[in-house]
């Protein structure tokens, strides 16, 4: 048994893994290499041997072990927490990394409760200092940045995917050397008290997922309910569409697109707020954005306080012009 391990939850939807896997594993490899810890990637769910084997080959030297766990439902956080606990115990894990999504944060809480471990969700960085896992995160709607040292033997961290990508080195080319291990767990009654009766796939879209997109265009009250300009600019930039709570409450956009403290937390390289006032609960969900562009007719809108570029204009006029200019420049350069 190794002296320690970093365990990484591979977020997947049968049978494809999501984009969060690579940056989390690369960062785990970087952290583990400095401490002499191995890296165990955990794939929870049924078979798909061919897909798992393909994924193992792509990880190269980053992962020592891929642990495929049967007997747990990858759609239920309580069941995932039990699966991760079993793997963490077996590997003598010092750190468990999960993506900081809705599901990931709930899984982190479940695992921490099961193991009595310290947990940090919504983290923007992870380092190991003097043997302790230290996670950085923004709090109070992004107005403060904190560093949280976990003093328990096991640290559970839900990490923002873009932060992991920025902090980790490029993933080495695959060599297929990772060892595949199988693990079966029997979830306790409390973890299986909820049963999934029906699963319905979300409509397929070519846009990236809101939580993982590098560019997000968010529409607010200033759109007047017309999201065509928001969607057009997002498509021109290859980004995702988001919305404020007002826009979703009014039915202008699905609630799944809500950005904020009670919605999706994002940290794209580029955030464009179209007609967004910048209420504190919204800023709490986008404060980690690298570059913030805000468009509003009100020069005193709170969003301008955190904007890198502030434009006083009507979004219904400006957004179509921006989208056309983006496409024109891409056409000339391509």
From TrEMBL:
Q: Give the UniProt keywords, A-Z.
A: FAD, Flavoprotein
What is one process in the GO biological process aspect for this record?
Answer: fatty acid beta-oxidation using acyl-CoA dehydrogenase
Under the subunit heading, UniProt states: Heterodimer of an alpha and a beta subunit.
Protein name stated in the entry: Electron transfer flavoprotein subunit alpha/FixB family protein
Q: How is the cofactor bound?
A: Binds 1 FAD per dimer.
Its family?
Answer: Belongs to the ETF alpha-subunit/FixB family.
Requisite cofactors: FAD
Q: Which InterPro entries does the UniProt record give? A: DHS-like_NAD/FAD-binding_dom, ETF_a/b_N, ETF_a/FixB, ETF_asu_C, Rossmann-like_a/b/a_fold
Please list the residues that bind FAD. 221, 244-245, 258-262, 275-282, 296
**Stored PANTHER family:** ELECTRON TRANSFER FLAVOPROTEIN ALPHA (PTHR43153), ELECTRON TRANSFER FLAVOPROTEIN SUBUNIT ALPHA, MITOCHONDRIAL (PTHR43153:SF1)
Task: State its role.
Answer: The electron transfer flavoprotein serves as a specific electron acceptor for other dehydrogenases. It transfers the electrons to the main respiratory chain via ETF-ubiquinone oxidoreductase (ETF dehydrogenase).
Domain Electron transfer flavoprotein alpha/beta-subunit N-terminal residue range list: 6-185
Gene Ontology molecular function, alphabetical: electron transfer activity; flavin adenine dinucleotide binding
